[in-house]
Amino acid sequence: MRTRDFDFDLPTELIAQFPSEQRTGSQMLYLDGSNDNFEDSLFTDLPNYLRSGDVMVFNDTRVIKARLFGKKSSGGKVEIMVARVLDDQHVQAVIRASHAPRLGSQLLLANTIPTFIIAREHDIYTLHFEHEKTAIELLEQYGSLPLPPYISRQVTPVDETRYQTVYARNIGAVAAPTAGLHFDETMLAKLRDMGVVIAYVTLHVGAGTFQPVRVDNITDHAMHSETFHIPAETIHVIQHAKTTGGRIMAVGTTSLRALEASAAMNDGVLKPGYGDTNIFIAPGYRLRVVERLLTNFHLPQSTLLMLVSAFGGVENIRRAYQHAVARRYRFFSYGDAMLIEKKS
């Protein structure tokens, strides 16, 4: 398929610039890919689509303060957006500057962090932080929250809370797993009381999630790699559900990617542990683990739109998105939700 096959007209006023007043206060579009039908609903109606024994898999990553400002040795200003933390002293990042810095040159970030540029691949630089504190510690102390590029405003104190899920605990992402932003503690408690099993994976979302697809044929697109972890307990509850009639729902594309990446790496079998994945799920991909997906509405021509098209069916998603635009659903990170049953 071609990248242009995933284009659609989106009025800019439908791009949510702020979160809803309440976490659970969004609309939700339900798409049943097995019979090609969709219906308008509310996120607070989500329990009506679940039953005891179902498993919901959440991504418990926590967003780091990935944006730093500084200057080059020449005095020119720079802004860096960390795409991935490699280890205690090294990160990968996108650099904004009037002139691209050279390999081997030095930056001073936050007037505190001596930083050396040691590698570059396309738009991604590898940086070495020469400091006694770890990269995560430095970002938490001196960085700012990295709102997505389509949110055209400054970060506010509200974002410090609302651009994190209520269950975020494993720090390392540079973008939020946004489907999880709809949940509050009351909703999670209600689901548990119903007998829905809550499980977790970790996938540290990288800046590659915002990178445009620059190729015409989508099979030529290369995904950035992201780190994930699947606990043994999560695999246990998924396997139990599959033998007892429970359904597996991924909360967000990142949870789905972690589960499907593990299965793809192990001949269809989920295994616990850590890994790196650049899995690209697009129409034609055979999904092995997840039967239901809760997600937000995604950018035109994006890898995430290709993923949901693989899950719910290309034509189903095209029709559903046309409906969402016509009904004034809110799009992207702070937008409304969509619950998709996998197309059989």
Mind sketching the topology for me?
Blueprint: E1 27-32, E2 37-42, E3 55-59, E4 61-63, E5 67-72, E6 77-85, E7 90-97, E8 106-109, E9 113-121, E10 124-129, H1 135-142, H2 157-162, E11 170-173, H3 185-193, E12 197-203, E13 226-230, H4 232-244, E14 248-251, H5 253-265, E15 273-277, E16 292-296, H6 303-312, H7 314-326, E17 337-341
Parallel strand pairs: 1-17, 3-12, 3-14, 4-11, 14-16
Antiparallel strand pairs: 1-2, 5-6, 5-8, 6-7, 7-10, 8-9, 9-10, 12-13, 13-15, 16-17
Structural overview:
The model has no long low-confidence stretch (mean pLDDT 95). The radius of gyration is 20 Å and the shape is globular. By secondary structure, the protein is of the alpha/beta class. The chain folds into two domains: 3-63 and 159-341, QueA-like, CATH 3.40.1780; 67-142, Beta Barrel (Thrombin, subunit H). The strands form three sheets. It has a nine-stranded mixed β-sheet with strand order 2-1-17-16-14-3-12-13-15. A six-stranded antiparallel beta barrel has the order 5-6-7-10-9-8. It starts with 26 loop residues before the first strand and ends with a strand. Strand 1 and strand 2 form a beta hairpin. It is built from seven helices and 17 strands.
Describe this protein with a few key phrases.
QueA-like; 344 residues; 7 helices; globular
